[in-house]
Amino acid sequence: MVNIRVWAPKAMHAMRPDLVFFNSQFIIQNSYFISVMQIRPFQPSDLDTLYRIDQECFPPGISYSRNELTGFIGRRGAKTWVALANERIVGFVIVDREPQGVGHIVTIDVVGGMRGKGVGKALMKLVEEWAQQEALRMIYLETAENNHSAQTFYSALGYGKVKEIPEYYSNGLAAWVMVKRFQRR
Questions:
Q1: How many Cβ atoms from other residues are within 10 Å of residue 1's Cβ?
Q2: Tell me, which fold does domain 38-181 have in CATH?
């Protein structure tokens, strides 16, 4: 797949959506430029970068070890997708298919400079499309009780809080389980 970069001032895009889907690419707009992002399946050579991003995104006790990430990615029902912008990995998501038609988002990580620019939304959209293709009933995830920006992000995508789990993370923080249910087709 070819990366295409289109540079334009924001003022030229008065009716801009945050995210435009074009074939298998996503166009991200921010205040300075428009850039094409690709999302592709995980490749083993991505592991070091994904580990580094996870360490950047989450504090100790919430971030995963390299072995944990490897284990999640390698699960039989797991899918991992990687978002690239300007040929650099800018985010990723790991989702696991569980019994009874349930999907579990293990982690979604976006590098700091790309947050709020549609990367997370594009990854979540891809996960939800996969879940519906797989005829899953619902997807759930956990987020730290004090991660209000993540809770707001997931709520805006239709996820609701269903349960608080005390001391979920190794650093003692509680987590909220958030769920999105899908209509059967």
A1: 11
A2: Aminopeptidase (3.40.630)
